[in-house]
Amino acid sequence: MAAIALVDDHVVLRRGLASLIREIGYTIAFEADNGDGFIRKLETGPEPDLVLMDINMPGKDGYQTTLWLKQNRPNIRVLALSMLDDETAIIRMLKNGARGYILKECEPAELKTAIDDVLQKEFYYSDLVTGRLVNSVHRLENDDPDKKRLLRLTEKEIQFLKLAATELTYKEVASEMKLSPRTVDGYRDILFEKLGVKTRVGLAIYAIRHGIVPI
To answer: What is the set of domains in the chain, with CATH numbers?
Structure first.
């Protein structure tokens, strides 16, 4: 039975979440108020199979803690569980190593599906993380069709992809590229079609997984 660690500074919500996790068939390794507390407990306690990670916490937040895990304990998987329905937050958590992203308002059935998928399939894809991303995440062989798509990208399209994976707005991306916002929208729409994705998150994940931007 997989063991799950909970990292969230809202104690009441965390306790309720712990009860729900037990009800759907998992055990709780331990709980922590923030990343600092999590790391301390990890160094002395049991190692969880998965961490349900909040983002906004005092001290070491979810972004920093997820990145620390990727660099120090990459075998521990992270599923982001947040109030933030925001592209920038999603992209940043995925870049830092999270294997999925769900909202705290989700139904218990979705939470169970997300945990099951991260444990069994490595990643959880949801309405927040859309597009045909499975190939770009899991298949890096020479005959990967996504790699062939990458070869057909122009210099400007690659530059746009790099900027799309940052926290810049599309207007700021246009300024950085010295192009009009309408032209940048055109690049976005072309890449949506070329890469088979539907959102900025999809563009960012493609760029991350193919080494266009550093992980």
So the answer is: 3-121 (3.40.50.2300), 134-209 (1.10.10.10)
